[in-house]
Design a protein that fits this description.
This protein has one domain. It is built from 2 helices and no strands.
């Protein structure tokens, strides 16, 4: 799963590099173009939004892993108590 996510991330960053490079050239050629200014603003929002989502996914996976660990630990302790008292 993480390998697939890493491939998607790499593809995103490669595409973002391509787009920002092209937009930078356009901005240098026509710095006063209002549509280009809107495009730049939208592109900047996307470049901030996607990494935030990626970070949220990473934190979600970490929390889920911790919850599973705690659950398994509690189940193991319960099993040991049952075996000790033959319940």
């Amino acid at each position: 799963m993480d390998k697939i996510q890493n491939l998607h991330d790499m593809e995103y960053y490669a595409n973002m590099l391509l787009m920002t490079g092209i937009v930078k050239k356009w901005a240098e050629a026509k710095p006063d173009n209002p549509d280009l200014k809107k495009l730049i603003a939208a592109l900047l929002k996307v470049t901030v939004y996607v990494p935030r989502l990626q970070n949220d996914i990473m934190k979600y996976k970490m929390a889920l892993s911790e919850y599973r660990y705690d659950k398994n630990k509690a189940l193991l302790e319960l099993k040991e108590i049952k075996e000790k008292y033959e319940l």
